[in-house]
Design goal:
By secondary structure, the chain is of the alpha/beta class. It has two domains: about 10-45 and about 270-360, Aspartate Aminotransferase, domain 1 (Alpha-Beta Complex); about 50-265, Aspartate Aminotransferase, domain 2. It has helices spanning about 10, 20-30, 50-55, 70-80, 95-105, 120-130, 145-155, 175-185, 240-245, 255-265, 270-290, 315-325, 350-360, and strands at about 35-40, 90, 110-115, 130-135, 160-165, 190, 215-220, 230-235, 295, 305-310, 330, 330-335, 340-345. It has a seven-stranded mixed β-sheet with strand order 2-8-7-6-5-3-4, with helices on both faces. Strands 9-10-13-12 form a four-stranded antiparallel β-sheet, covered by helices on one side. It has a two-stranded parallel sheet with strand order 1-11. β12 and β13 form a beta hairpin. The protein is globular. The termini are far apart. It binds pyridoxal-5'-phosphate. Pyridoxal-5'-phosphate binds near residues 93 and 119.
Length: about 375
């Protein structure tokens, strides 16, 4: 018997399904890590800038606690984004900031509006924070259901509305007029732009200081290839900043992450090359996947592609086969709106070739 009773909202949390790193995958399928093609978590296959590697190799202050205000990184981010440092908070990934936002804004039972299918952490953190999640499902083309959101907003008065542009897992964008309509609601809009750099669309981040109810989240995990170091950031309206500073874990961004992130921002050529290369490869991958009659490839503005697998091929089995027989890891979803769907991150050209070769052995009769 446990000596204490856990709060019911914690005891009833659904189990978390993590995406696993190379060494764990390597053991699972009995292949060397270098023989694994990891296309399941939208990581950057080219990794971090050489400048970031060098900065890590020369790390001077690993034995000293980091700056609780991440001043160097926020100054560099201010240059990079055009947002004053006073409006920026850095976190151990955008993930930490999603949780922080909820912790400082929600009372138990408050409502969070979510538009699934989308990134799972909004619902996960809402559960963790004892909030009520109101789901307004996206339409079949993954655009948000504006009427549904307006109805739900009126009925449930959500404090927070989470939007993702480009959306994970399909890569669709939130059109500007939709965002404008949502900003007119009496709620705090959290716009997650984790993949914005791959879209060619201008970020909303510079609008944050002049918009009382807009938060924009971004990350170093995708563009800058720092997913393993856990560093993301957000722009917040001025009124929320003092509360965030009070509530944030003091040493949330470690010195290695901070130093690598500053170095990454100091290598704009590498960032631009990454975007150009991955966007070109996304288009190549989309074309190659579209040649399979049994795959419907959705248009994507991010570094991944969502595909629906036609009847006759079991998507879950396809995922398992790719892993076991070919060492290729992709994401499979079994959720409302995503039945028979797989998501493939954009890799290097030889990884695309390996995936396409593996898929070529599949046929649907008729
Ligand atoms: C939409 C979205 N937001 C945030 C994140 C997490 O970002 P971070 O690695 O900075 O925590 C992800 C990661 O997959 C994502 O897809």
């Amino acid at each position: 018997m446990p000596p204490i009773t856990l709060p019911p909202h914690i005891a009833s949390l659904p189990p978390y399904t993590p995406i696993e790193p190379f060494d764990v995958l390597s053991q699972k399928v009995g292949r060397a890590p270098e023989d694994i093609i990891k296309l399941d978590a939208n990581e950057n296959p080219y990794g971090m800038s050489p400048r970031a590697r060098e900065a890590l190799a020369n790390l001077a202050y690993g034995h000293i606690y980091p700056d609780p205000e991440s001043r160097s990184l926020r100054a560099a981010l201010s240059q990079f984004t055009g947002v004053p440092a006073e409006n920026l908070v850095v976190g151990a990934g955008a993930d930490e900031l999603i949780d922080l936002i909820m912790r400082v804004t929600l009372n138990p039972g408050d409502t969070v509006l979510n538009c699934p299918p989308t990134f799972g952490m909004y619902a996960f953190d809402a559960d963790l924070n004892n909030a009520k999640v109101i789901n307004v499902p996206r339409k079949s083309d993954f655009s948000v259901d504006m009427d549904g959101i307006l109805d739900a907003a009126e009925k449930f008065s959500p404090k927070l509305i989470f939007l993702t542009s480009p959306n994970n897992p399909d890569g669709s964008l939130i059109p500007q007029p939709v965002l404008q309509k949502l900003l007119a609601l009496p709620a705090l809009i959290v716009l997650d732009e984790a993949y914005i750099e791959f879209s060619g669309v201008t970020s909303q981040i510079t609008n944050v200081p002049s918009t009382n109810n807009l938060i924009v989240l971004r990350t170093f995990s995708k563009l800058a290839g720092l997913a393993g170091l856990r560093v993301g950031y957000g722009a917040f309206p001025a009124w929320l900043m003092p509360t965030l500073w009070k509530a944030k874990q003091p040493y949330n961004v470690n010195v290695a992450a901070s130093v690598a992130a500053v170095a990454a921002l100091n290598d704009p050529d590498y960032l631009a090359w990454t975007v150009k290369t991955l966007v070109a490869e996304r288009n190549h991958l989309a074309e190659a996947l579209s040649t399979f009659r049994w795959l419907k490839v959705y248009p994507s503005h991010a570094n991944f592609l969502l595909c629906r697998v036609a009847p006759g091929i079991e998507a879950a089995q396809l995922k398992a086969d790719l892993a076991q027989k070919h060492g290729i890891f992709i994401r499979y979803f079994n959720k409302p709106g995503l039945t028979d769907c797989i998501r493939v991150s954009v890799g290097k050209p030889d990884q695309t070739d390996a995936l396409i070769a593996a898929l070529s052995s599949y046929r649907v009769e008729g």
